[in-house]
Amino acid sequence: MKLLEIFEEEISNESTNYFILDSGQHQRDVDFESYEWKTSINNRLSVGDLFIYRRPQKMSARKEFMFFGVGKVGTISGNDHVEATIKKPHPFVNPILQSDVADFKWTWKERGNSWEHFWNQYGINQISREDFLNLLEMANEDYDADYDGEAVRADSQIADQDYSVEDSRAFSPSRPWQAAWSRRVKDAYGYQCAVCDLALPIFLVGSHIIPVKDKEHVNKRKDPANGICLCTIHDKAFDEGYFTISDEYKIVLSDQAKIDSVLWGYLERFQGKLVRRPNKFKPDRKS
User: Fold this and answer.
1) Under the phi-then-psi rule, with left for phi > 0, alpha for psi from -120 to 50, and beta for the rest, what region is 160?
2) Which residues neighbour 233 within 8 Å (Cβ) at sequence distance 6 or greater?
3) Which of 12, 92, 177, 259 is the one with CA 20 to 30 A from 6?
């Protein structure tokens, strides 16, 4: 289903308000699970309101902000310092990048010539219904409540450093845990290929270093450090053994890559190049 269909009931309710919530702004926030704030600073968020998550520039490996998911405000508990559960969580298939909204026509506020002073420093921005709908249109992919719910639970396990995946789940046709793991890996690399720096999210994947089929390392299957962000071409070449990565994090091409002159001509330029390494979840040399 499309997101506009999933949230059709809430959107048709005239009392629904719409927000952009900054991720990691408050100590106890857990993306897609809970969000906290002080009502003495912001008393507008209510049960049933809809929001889009934003990762601020200062917290992004890409050095620009991005919108990465949508949800609904659930039960709110507490007095001044309150905490809300998150209902109907849906991470975006691909994030909406700062560059994607360079020409976005906001109706809730005039942006001016820069983003300076545009976002509320407290991390909660109330936007118009029109702005919310237009942003959802930009994340216009197919979503599934059960699949996304499992992916969110897997993401929570990764946050708690539970990286193991049982064989029954590792090889199932639908692998929500891998979607959550892949998002973590791509986010750590700032949504850029570690080899060629391609930065269009639709061409990027989280690629396992120790393969999922390796049953001696079940506790590494969900570990983001056992992953590298690659474009689809380099992911396939890496998976098929056309190149490896040395202990010094350099590209090493195999003779197998010479099987096709076009492929060799493309890969040869990366021979000996240092791959991009993230600040968080850097690949283990022992892998």
Assistant:
1) alpha
2) 266
3) 177
Share of the chain above pLDDT 70, in %: 99
Pairing of strands 227-231, 50-55: unpaired
Write down how long the chain is.
Answer: 287
Q: How do 124-127 and 18-22 pair as beta strands? A: antiparallel
204 residue type, one letter: L
> DSSP letter string over 50-86?
EEEEEE-GGG-TTSS-EEEEEEEEEEEEESSEEEEEE
The per-residue pLDDT of the chain, averaged, comes to: 93
Which one, of 207, 217, 164, lies nearest residue 184 by Cα? Answer: 207
Could you give the CA distance from residue 27 to residue 85 in angstroms, rounded to a whole number?
Answer: 15
The residues near 97 (Cβ < 8 Å, ≥ 6 apart) are: 62, 64, 66, 191, 201
The pTM (predicted TM-score) of the whole model is 0.91
